[in-house]
Amino acid sequence: MSVDLSANAGTTPVREGYRFDEARLAAWMEGHVADFAGPIRVAQFKGGQSNPTYRLDTPGRSYVLRRKPPGPVLKGAHAVEREARVLGALGKANFPVARVHGLCTDESVIGSWFYVMDMVDGRIFWDATFPDVGLDERATYFDAMNRTIAALHRFQPEALGLGDYGRPGNYFERQIARWSKQYLEDEAAGRDPGMDRLIEWLPTAIPAGDETRLVHGDFRCDNMIFHPHEPRILAVLDWELSTLGHPLADFAYHAMMFRMPPDIVAGLGGADLQALGIPDEYAYRDAYCRHAGRPPISEADYAFCIAFNFFRLAAIFHGIKGRVIRGNAASAHARERAASLPRLIALAVESMELCR
Questions:
Q1: Residues 6 or more apart from 37 whose CB is under 8 A from it?
Q2: DSSP-assigned beta bridge partners for residue 66
Q3: In this predicted model, what pLDDT tens digit does every residue of 63-90 receive, in sequence order?
Q4: DSSP strand E in 185-322: where?
Q5: How far apart are CA 222 and CA 130, in angstroms?
Q6: Helix (H, G, I), strand (E, B), or coil: what is residue 115?
Q7: What is the value of pTM for the model shown?
Q8: Residue 22, helix vs strand vs coil
Q9: Whole-angstrom Cα distance, residue 213 to residue 166?
Q10: What is the C-alpha separation between 211 and 111, in angstroms, rounded?
């Protein structure tokens, strides 16, 4: 069974357990959002499962609200205040993000911290082949994504006021250690020889040199809003995983789409790129280097970055498998993720072999 990412599109009536006092929200917005004029009509986006996301419609305009989930949350998790901060900093630098109107840390308003930003109208592509775009235009849409992630990585975090947004340096070492620990500690999900090989090999193959930039962490085509008619990105969404990290790790995560089976997440694995008018993976990688103003990435370093990202995603899916086995993630979606784990591990091992 494939995963239909487009099922996350659109809104639904606010779900049970996620409702709040709309009058209290309107009162807060009157005091914190310039030119706000109610009344408001609230709907919940189908996506945004980690941080619930709502559409707020008024007679004059629309907004988006992102909040921490109701109830107790783990320390440091669901940090909407970090999202609001990075959006504000990037907006001032003219990077394509939605404008943030305000952050509320008063839980008495709707029950948890939240922020309000502009509603950006445009197109979201849930299928990485961009089937709704003409054949002769697809390359320009891919170039827009490429230029946008390259522009993000050109920023110096300190210049954005984000020098303390994460731990600088040693990104690969810290990430490998984190996900290895999670994998090894989840005994219910079992062990896999491929993962064990990756855990042994990855720390020994980290490329020389170190860089620190602002990274998005989940830069995919379905996390962007494109102009309704032009190959132009109006807003990059979902900054929940953003931090300070290595730009090549962030780009390689994005470039995994060329190898990713489309039934796992939005991917191009197995697609006839030439027939689709889409640049191939290596042309796309070289274009990123030009746009980012950096030297070409060696084949070995690039293969490592791809292997690292497939390993990271496999570790996440391994955790989902463990939750399914323990009975606290029994949805069909979670089971599909768990069933995809062997293919992710195989893709990570394949990239590892290219480094040797």
A1: 58, 59, 60
A2: 53, 115
A3: 999 998 877 665 666 789 999 999 999 9
A4: 213-215, 224-226, 233-236, 243-245
A5: 10
A6: strand
A7: 0.90
A8: helix
A9: 10
A10: 39
